[in-house]
Design brief:
By secondary structure, this protein is α+β, with helices and mostly antiparallel strands. The protein is built from 8 helices and 19 strands. About 25% of the residues lie in helices and about 20% in strands.
Length: about 425
């Protein structure tokens, strides 16, 4: 997570955590008094510096300095800096440090500020006492939240004050709140075309077309992939439903089921997108390709901030003909990423797709900047509650958490043909 300018650590001897730069135009333009705070040493251009403990700055060093309207050219060891200093070429800062016989930390601080102060300082036309603050904010964490009641009906009309957010058990302040998010949608529809789903191929194609036509808006984009032994890209991201229809007419087939490869590859494609990122999977469950694992798929989806919606299409209801472990995996992948799972047998594929569409239209978007994060933790768990309601009154769905650090191992790529 990013830190404020004044808090950012640098290598030893550089601009340290106890140093700060205060940039304020107090009497512009002629009598600028830019104050540079160097770990307790304050230099003002219109006053002579008193001798410091190291003797580096002295009154004689600034003997040529004149009052407010003239350029100030303090000599700091081997450095001569004036208020109109321009950015220096790469490496010049380090060369100056190495070539100068003075190696103290104080000199490094003075050199840093003398080089960067004129670049960062406000223009001469800045208003007096503007008090501008330069800050690098933490990354905004977005949570897409669905709330339903005991009967499964959508709960709308909640406000920002109704929600409470915890990260790793610590309360967080909500910075962004939207109802029925209108954010653009980037969605990948992934269809299982392994041998076990062949009997339902036509039904899957027709239901998928109905879903696409009902869901797509001008600001949305959708991509189409199929997976069997391998993962195949049928249509890249587009908002043209005609191209998606054509892709659905090109579904093929294969023997194995590369379910986790499909989730991994789809999450990789969605990670760089803005707005809401959704993966809709139509499958009977189970991974038989044995390339990626469940953990690989889940971590990659969470890192890419991808919500998974699983439509479990089970042609054989008898447990002897079903991969219950695979079905459970599809259910938990949806739960952990803030999505939801549906069985196609309960009203058919059309009804399952309609539920996905309704769910995406009735989300709350809650954003916050992490506060008081515990160092050394890569995965941060989040909790969303509605305190005024009894725990059993609402069913609140959201992702389990997010990763703030890159993976320890470089991510591999799953090829898409």
């Amino acid at each position: 997570m990013g830190k404020s300018f004044a808090q950012r650590r640098t290598p030893a001897g550089g601009f340290g955590q106890n140093d700060s730069v205060a940039l304020r135009a107090q009497n512009p333009p002629s009598a600028a008094k830019a104050a540079v705070v160097l770990g307790g040493l304050t230099a003002r251009p219109n006053s002579l510096l008193k001798k410091t403990r190291s003797g580096l700055f002295s009154e004689s060093a600034l003997a040529g300095a004149k009052a407010q309207d003239q350029r100030i050219e303090p000599h700091v060891g081997c450095l001569k800096a004036a208020p109109d200093t321009r950015p220096v070429p790469n490496g010049l800062f380090q060369q100056a440090v190495k070539s100068c016989p003075i190696k103290t930390s104080l000199f490094r601080r003075a050199l840093f500020c003398a080089v960067l102060l004129p670049v960062l300082a406000p223009s001469a036309g800045a208003q007096e006492d503007s008090g501008a603050t330069f800050r690098i904010e933490s990354k905004l964490v977005n949570l897409f939240v669905n709330v339903t009641d005991r009967n499964g009906s959508i709960v709308g009309g909640l406000t920002k004050d109704d929600f409470k957010i915890l990260e790793d058990g610590r309360p967080q302040e909500i910075a962004v709140f939207e109802r029925e998010s209108a954010m653009p949608l980037s969605l990948i529809l992934a269809i299982d075309t392994s041998a076990s789903t062949a009997i339902d191929r036509t039904r899957e194609r027709d239901a998928s077309k109905t879903f696409i036509h009902a869901l797509m808006r001008e600001q949305d984009q959708m991509s189409l992939i199929e997976f069997a032994t391998f993962v195949n890209l049928l249509v890249p991201f587009t908002n043209k439903v005609g191209q998606l229809d054509h892709g659905l007419n090109s579904l093929k087939g294969g023997d194995a089921t590369a379910l986790y490869d499909a989730i991994y590859a789809a999450s990789d494609s969605l990670a760089s997108k803005k707005g809401r990122k959704v993966l809709v999977i139509v499958s009977d469950g189970g991974d038989t390709a044995k390339n990626s694992t469940y953990d690989d798929a889940l971590e990659h989806a969470l890192r890419g901030e991808v919500m998974i919606y699983s439509i479990i299409d089970v042609p054989i209801e008898a447990s002897a003909g079903r991969d219950l472990g695979g079905e459970h995996a599809l259910i938990t992948l949806a739960e952990q990423t803030g999505g939801k799972s549906f069985y196609a047998e309960q009203g058919g594929l059309d009804k399952a797709f309609a539920k996905v569409s309704d769910d995406l239209r009735t989300q709350y978007m809650i954003g916050y900047y992490p506060h008081k994060q515990e160092p050394g933790i890569s995965f941060h768990r989040v909790s969303v509650t509605v305190p005024r309601a009894a725990a059993e009154q609402f069913n609140i769905r959201y992702k389990a958490g997010y990763y703030s650090e890159p993976p320890e191992q470089p991510k591999r790529r799953v090829p898409i043909d």
